[in-house]
Amino acid sequence: MLTQTLKGFRDFLPKEAKKRQYVIETLKKVFESYGFEPLETPALEYEEILTGKYGEEGDKLMYKFTDNGGRKVALRYDQTVPLARVIAQYGDALPMPFKRYQIQNVWRAENTQKGRYREFLQVDADIVGSPSPLSDAEIIALAVKSLEKLGFKNYKILINDRSLLDSIPKSAISAIDKLKKIGKDGVLKELINKGIPKEKAQLILSEIEKKKPTERINNILSYITPIGVKPLKCEFLPTLARGLDYYTSTIFEIEIDGYSAGSVCGGGRYDNLIGIFAGKQIPAVGFAFGFDRLIEAMEELDLFPKDLNTSNVLVTVFNNELLDKSIEAAEKLRKNGINSELFLDPEQKMEKQLKYADTKGVPYVVIIGPDEAKNNTVTIRNMQTREQKTIEIEKLPDEFKK
Amino acid sequence: MLTQTLKGFRDFLPKEAKKRQYVIETLKKVFESYGFEPLETPALEYEEILTGKYGEEGDKLMYKFTDNGGRKVALRYDQTVPLARVIAQYGDALPMPFKRYQIQNVWRAENTQKGRYREFLQVDADIVGSPSPLSDAEIIALAVKSLEKLGFKNYKILINDRSLLDSIPKSAISAIDKLKKIGKDGVLKELINKGIPKEKAQLILSEIEKKKPTERINNILSYITPIGVKPLKCEFLPTLARGLDYYTSTIFEIEIDGYSAGSVCGGGRYDNLIGIFAGKQIPAVGFAFGFDRLIEAMEELDLFPKDLNTSNVLVTVFNNELLDKSIEAAEKLRKNGINSELFLDPEQKMEKQLKYADTKGVPYVVIIGPDEAKNNTVTIRNMQTREQKTIEIEKLPDEFKK
Question: Which of residues 302-321 of B touch A (CB under 8 A)?
């Protein structure tokens, strides 16, 4: 029988799933420390709520179908359009500004050859209803604090005001955005390839490089230091454009030193999108983490804690007669707040039980054989050093509380 | 523009989302304390992996469609068939017994008039690869400890061995299962309605009531007390059948006293299902919580903590000149581990800022006006009692650490 996942879809076995949970839980804690609250929206929405909001490309990549009741439905494509629907639907019941985070999967029928996935987790935090640059500053600070909490120490925040690009022909923007990556010559070449005469291209580029921060950007930069973001980490980059059309002023990206696959976080102010369902302008600012990139960067920089294993202790079972002793020991450990599991197959040889601890990455094993049972002791084996020691059963929890 | 969710699909606004998170996090901690580890599988699977596994009814309620690449796909319908696929796909890479929990949404095109949802969270914990009754006992203990951790004190575990029903005609089983609910007369009536002669029906019923626990059930009951489940909570109920055909021996349900909508947890041993993809018998035992029922029961019994609010403190902003002081205070609180948020719109009147705290359920508000700024103090307002007091700014974190 077929046993495979669809292209672009992934299983997360325990080892990976625990890493993901660690990142999610860490981010949630930081988000909540700033008063951001969770929001969940359905995986399926009426198709008409989603279509036309993500451009032609989006409509093409969307998972759409007709349900059993003949309704045209589509799978969540991002978390911003659902947020806009929620704002229109519940309006006055929500506190304003509405600060929410949302951590759910989205689905896009991407070309998987580019290393993209068709199901991936999005991590969004947004502030809806506040036009103040203070909100922009808090969003940037929140992203920075999140990264620091995950262990990233060296990073750079690139910031710009999208309105500075208003005078640039739309077709030129994506080329200019690449300045940091491909250099001046590269950008010029791309602009010329797009049919812009060389002189005009040079003019566009030199003009944009001369731009000064807007009042909003200066305000943000002045707020951001008291909130705890080191000013040296911030760089005003007038060529930064970001792909999405919907940004209206502030835009920013965060790059991690030593991780080259791209920025791990991006966001900005988008004052015209959230109101589309409500039929009025509603200011908003927010960011998204690239969750898969975060995981990859943490992997590369070795930032995951070493003790993400679920169980601290495996209590083995010597034989059926001594099972009660083992049950008791495991229960005693758990009562003292130590994650510990009992080996569940008393018929298995000790060797197999130790191998189980190895496969699962359980660092300590407790053995209660006839001698231990007689003397009210237990033997503790350190799975890494293979050292063993025998202690009184009463002292077992203390051994792991240290 | 349309702003509504599909029938049977729900948004969870922050207040509800936080309750859900609280339950999920509590359950995860208990699961992990027993060595159960998280597994995630994709929302979409090849249709052929899912079809034919849930009976005719299941195939009808499944969300199926053809994707852009012409593949026939279906949305996750439960978490057991994906588990069976995972076991076959990764086999030897997994520790055995494989103890996993899985907490993801499933989708079923149910008749919503019965108060059923089309997208709902499933909470499953299973042990794959161990035939031992010790595993059955641990699964039941795990369910019980989870409920106790959530605050449920009075509950009843109903337990039976499905094999005791082997001699009963299949058509009679669902009627017999209702004995506790509709009484003897009710069951007899239903059996007769199904075309079973009255005498035969009486015989079936009296026979089943005389059944004694099997050796497996006795073993489970003997293990379960040392694991910490009070024996009085367990009732052997030979008429318990549970709906699903796939159970092979142990079955159990847990009912909460004072919550009448039905059992909140059910499970059992199913030794023939997990191996269908691997082409061999693989023993397994597990349970599922009815997540929506859990939430409802906790609501009814008032078991949610009162302090699920995200922020402990709202730091208001008196005016733009005093903004720095407020930023500083909020940051100081956060640095001391106190969730606190800054009001993000310095132009708003104090009254509106207090209303925001009220809407969001933030219990304390900090005010720094000109007097406070001059004297290096802050005023703290208790939003419930409306009491205010002014303290030195240095002492602010201590005020909330208590």
Answer: 310-311, 314
